[in-house]
Specification:
Strand order of the largest sheet: 4-1-5-10-6-9-7-8
CATH architecture of the largest domain: 3-Layer(aba) Sandwich
CATH class of the largest domain: Alpha Beta
Number of domains: 2
CATH topology of the largest domain: D-Maltodextrin-Binding Protein, domain 2
Order of helices and strands: HEEEHEHEEHEHEHEHEHH
Structural class: alpha/beta
Distance between the termini: 44 Å
Strand content: 25-35%
Number of helices: 9
Largest sheet: 8 strands, mixed
Helix content: 25-40%
Shape: globular
Number of strands: 10
C-alpha cells in the first residue's frame, strides 16, 4: 500500500521547477558560506618544511596537513595564502602576531596556554634514531642522557619534551633536512624525529629507511592547527566545526590514509 494518505494530492515537479529549486538551494549555500567568510578576518597561515605533513613543492605549499587546511578553508570561505618558513621563525610569529595560525603544531603541556587549538590533525611518536651501522645503545631515557649528543630541530616540541626530561646533551638545527644530512654524513650520531615524517624525509634525500634504526620512543603526541592567542574565538570555533564536519563525512580520513597509509587516524 502506498505511504501517501488517502485522498492526498502528490505534487509532480516540472523540470523548470526542479531547476529553480536546485538553484535556490545552491544560492542559500553560497550565501551561508559568504556570510561566514565575511565575518572572519584575514588570517596569516604559517607552516614549515616537514614532509609529508607540510612542505614546499615547486615553491607552493603541499603535504597532508596543508591539504586538510585547504579543505577547511574551502568550507569556511577563506582564501588566505599559506606560507612555508623555518619552524623557529614561524613559531615566534604565531605567538606574537594577531590572527595567525601555525601547523602542524604538536600540543604538549608546555604549549597549552600559548595558543588556541584546532584539531587534532595528526598523531605522532617521537623517537631517537641512529644510522644502522652505529654502535650507540640506549634502552632508557637515563641511558640516552649519557649519549654524546642528540640533534633536534630548534623549537620543535621534541626539543621541549627532552629538555623537560632533563636532557642537557641536545644540539639544534633549523630544519629536518639539515638534521638528516648531518646524521647520514656522520656529523652527529643520534637525532630526535617522528614515525610519520622520517621515512619520507630519508627517501627524499636518497636514503633507504633501513639505513637508520630506532633507539627508543620517548613520547606520543597529537598535532593541531595552533592559532595565536590574539585570534578571535569565533575564528577558532568556525575552523573546529569545519574540521569536525570533515571527520564526520569521511573526507578527513580519506586524506589521512592517502598520505599516511596504515597510520591510525586521530579522532
Amino acid at each position: 500500500m502506498s505511504g501517501t494518505a488517502f485522498g492526498a494530492t502528490v505534487k509532480k515537479w516540472q523540470p523548470a521547477e526542479k531547476v529553480a529549486m536546485i538553484r535556490g538551494l545552491w544560492l542559500l549555500m553560497l550565501v551561508a558560506t559568504t556570510s561566514v567568510a565575511a565575518s572572519l578576518p584575514p588570517l596569516v597561515l604559517l607552516t614549515e618544511d616537514d614532509p609529508p605533513l607540510t612542505y614546499s613543492a615547486s615553491g607552493k605549499p603541499a603535504g597532508m596537513v596543508v591539504e586538510i587546511v585547504r579543505e577547511i578553508q574551502r568550507r569556511v570561505g577563506s582564501r588566505d595564502a599559506i606560507e612555508v618558513m623555518p619552524w623557529a621563525r614561524a613559531y615566534r610569529l604565531a605567538q606574537s602576531k594577531a590572527d595567525t595560525a601555525l601547523f602542524n603544531t604538536n600540543r604538549i603541556r608546555e604549549r597549552e596556554g600559548m595558543f588556541k587549538w584546532v584539531g587534532p590533525v595528526t598523531m605522532t611518536s617521537g623517537s631517537l634514531f641512529v644510522r644502522q651501522d652505529s654502535h650507540a645503545r640506549a634502552d632508557s631515557l637515563d641511558e640516552a642522557k649519557r649519549l654524546s649528543q642528540i640533534l633536534v630541530v630548534r623549537d620543535w616540541y621534541l626539543q621541549q619534551v627532552l629538555i623537560d626530561e632533563g636532557f642537557s646533551n641536545l644540539g639544534t638545527v633549523a630544519t629536518p633536512n639539515q638534521m638528516i644530512t648531518m646524521l647520514m654524513l656522520g656529523r652527529t650520531e643520534v637525532i630526535a624525529s617522528e614515525n610519520t615524517t622520517l621515512p619520507i624525509q630519508l627517501r627524499q634525500q636518497g636514503y633507504r629507511g633501513n639505513e637508520v634504526r630506532k633507539l627508543l620512543t620517548f613520547t606520543h603526541t597529537y598535532g593541531y592547527i595552533a592559532f595565536s592567542k590574539i585570534t578571535s574565538d569565533q575564528v577558532v570555533r568556525t575552523w573546529q566545526r569545519a574540521l569536525d564536519e570533515m571527520k564526520r563525512d569521511g573526507s578527513f580520513a580519506a586524506i589521512y590514509h592517502r598520505w599516511l597509509p596504515g597510520e591510525q587516524v586521530p579522532d
